[in-house]
Design goal:
By secondary structure, this protein is an alpha+beta fold. Helix 1 (12-23) runs parallel beside helix 3 and helix 4 runs parallel beside helix 6 (155-169). Strand 1 (3-7), helix 1 and strand 2 (28-32) form a beta-alpha-beta unit. The chain contains 8 helices and 4 strands. The chain has helices at residues 12-23, 43-48, 67-78, 89-118, 125-142, 155-169, 178-190, 194-217, and strands spanning 3-7, 28-32, 56-59, 62-65. It has 2 domains: 3-78, Glutaredoxin (3-Layer(aba) Sandwich), CATH 3.40.30; 89-213, Up-down Bundle (Glutathione S-transferase Yfyf (Class Pi), Chain A, domain 2), CATH 1.20.1050.10. Helix content is 60%, strand content 8%. Strands 2-1-3-4 form a 4-stranded mixed sheet, covered by helices on one side.
Length: 218
């Protein structure tokens, strides 16, 4: 059965859902919403998700949103084993911690720094430094681990790599963080369709930024 995914092509959380689906060999019916055009506020979408956010999935009539919740749901329901979302209580706690760090720290600091600039504001150096600090924290988390948690790919890796790919598309580099850089390359090369899916998102973001810059310069 195909699962509907309501998404935006520039959204890191939407890319996360696609990566999880790829890792589980699930088919998604992609439904692109023009958020800037207000597609997410249309009555038909509000019936599915009153919070009107993307990503949102509909699986056999069941709708759920928030990318990390979707990731857990898909792994729990469709995972052939517990590798992507470990059954072991300790390992699962670490995966959840990494997911919470991505949501509450890494992605949040990225949004706080970048989004005001997209609305015409100036870069806040203090917020930029806070984002850089998050890279250092993640670098420390990864020390001694092959993946985000232990030696196996989990949904934590897929969420984090989506966020970091989006951040990279805005011009950031991770060269100062060798452990993070090594992990980032590993996930890109080993997670199913990761290079393709994150690459498409990054290209779309860069195209939009280039068009915005050209318009501002004209």
């Amino acid at each position: 059965m195909t699962i509907d995914l309501y998404r935006s092509a520039t959204s890191a959380p939407c890319a996360t859902v696609q990566l999880v689906a790829a890792a589980l060999d699930l088919e998604l019916n992609l439904i692109d919403l023009n958020v800037t055009g207000g597609d997410h506020l249309k009555p038909e979408f509000l019936k599915i998700n009153p919070q009107h956010t993307v990503p949102t999935i509909v699986d056999d009539g069941f709708s759920v949103w928030e990318s990390r919740t979707i990731a857990r749901y898909l792994a729990n329901k469709y995972g052939k084993d517990s590798t992507l979302y470990p059954a072991d209580v300790t390992l699962r706690a670490l995966v959840d911690q990494r997911l919470d760090f991505d949501l509450g720290t890494l992605y949040t600091r990225f949004a706080q720094y970048i989004f005001p600039q997209l609305m015409g504001g100036k870069a806040d150096e203090a917020l930029g430094k806070k984002l850089e600090e998050a890279f250092g924290v993640l670098d420390a988390f990864l020390e001694g681990n092959t993946y985000a948690v232990g030696d196996h790919l989990t949904i934590a890796d897929l969420s984090l790599v989506s966020t970091l790919s989006s951040i990279e598309a805005f011009g950031f580099s991770y060269k100062e963080y060798p452990i993070l850089t090594k992990w980032y390359g590993l996930v890109k090369s080993s997670a199913p369709q990761c290079e393709e899916l994150t690459g498409k998102m990054m290209s779309t973001i860069r195209e939009i930024l280039a068009a915005r810059k050209a318009k501002q310069g004209s």
